[in-house]
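Before a colleague's protein record goes any further, I have to sign it off. Would you go through it and say whether the fold makes sense for this chain? Take the sequence as given and treat only the C-alpha cells as open to question. The record follows directly below this note.
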Amino acid sequence: MTARRSARPGPTQDLVLAELRRIASLDCTPLVRVIRVGMTGSDLIVRLRIRTGEIAVKPGGLPIRSDHEDVVTAVPVSFPLIPPSAHVEHGRFVGYPHVLQGDRLCLYLDLGQEWHPEHGVVGFLNQLWSWLEGAAGGLFDARTALYHPVGGVLHATAGTPTVVVRAALDLGERSIALRWLHRRTPTRLDLVRQPSSSDDLATAIVALPAPLRYGAGNTIDRICAIFDHIGQSRDAFLHTLAMTSARNPPRSSVHFVLGVPDTGSSSHDPETNHLICGRIAGHAMEPLRTAAKEQGALLQLTRSDIPYDTPIEWCRTALAGSRRCAPASASKDRALKRSMFFCLVRGPFSRHTAETHRQVYSLCVHIFMLQRS
C-alpha cells in the first residue's frame, strides 16, 4: 500500500486517528494496532490490526487468519458524514461474496440505511467486526451478492445506453458468436439474433471460461491481461473485435458482450450468467478494422495494429421483461425506514468506548461544519 506522506490530514481525520489509537490502547477490544500509512488524495490511510482469534471460520467461509487480520482503511475528509472504506493487501479473499475486485470489503450494502454519522469510529469498527464474523461464518451467499461474477461492481459508464437482451444467447458449445444491436431509442440498444435494419451494428458475444473476480478493467490492455489470467485467448478476442468492426460502417463504435459464469456454472444462458457489454470508440478501432478489411478471416494482428491503451466504456445490460430494464429509483417507503436515528451500535467495541464516543462524534461534526462554512 503506497500513500503520499506530504499531504496533511484534516482536523476530523486527526480526531479519528487519535480515537483509533485510544481504542487500541485499551487492550480489551479486538483492535490491537493502528498505523498511520499516509494520505491518498484527501483520504487518511490507516492500517488496523484486528485480533480474530474469537471468530469461528466455517466451511466455505472467508479464510481469515486464526490470530489477526490487517485491514487498511481510508478515512474520508467528510467523515463522519461518509464512513471509512476498507480493503486488504493480500489475495486470500478473492472470489468470496461481498469482496469487491479481490480486496475491497463491502461493509455497507446501503449507506442510507446502515450508516448514520453518530455511529462514528465505534460504529465503523463494530461494522467491520460484524462483517468479518459473517463472512468467516459463511453467512454471505454468492448467489445473491450483486455483480459477484464480475468482481462485485457495476460495469456502467455514464452516458452509455442500456443494452437489452431480447432472447437467450443459444451459443451451444461455441464460445464466440455474432449478434446484432438494434437501436430502439437514443438510450436503449436491443441485442438480437438477426439484423432488422441497415443501421444495426454487428456485435461480438464472448462466453468466458471463468468469473472475472477483479472486474473487467477499463482498457484493452487491462482486459487482455485479465483474459490471460482466466485462460481466455486474447488473440481470439482481438481477432473477433477486428472482424466485427469490419462488418460495421467506418468509425462506428464496436460493442462486445461478455457472458461471465459464476463458479461452477457453464451455461451460456443470460438468465444464469452475468452479461456485461463493452464499447470501444470507432476511431480507436480503425487500425483493426482496416487490417480486417485487407486480410479477411486470415487476419494476422501485430502489436502495432492494437491500440492497447484504448479505453473501454461499459453499457448497462438488462433482460427483456425484467425489472432490471427499468431505471433505478429510490423508494419513498424505503427511505422512511432508514435507520438514521439509531446511534447505538452493538459490538465488541461499544461497551469499552461509549464514554467518549459521543464527544468525538460531536467534535467531528463541529469541525466538519466549520470547514464547510
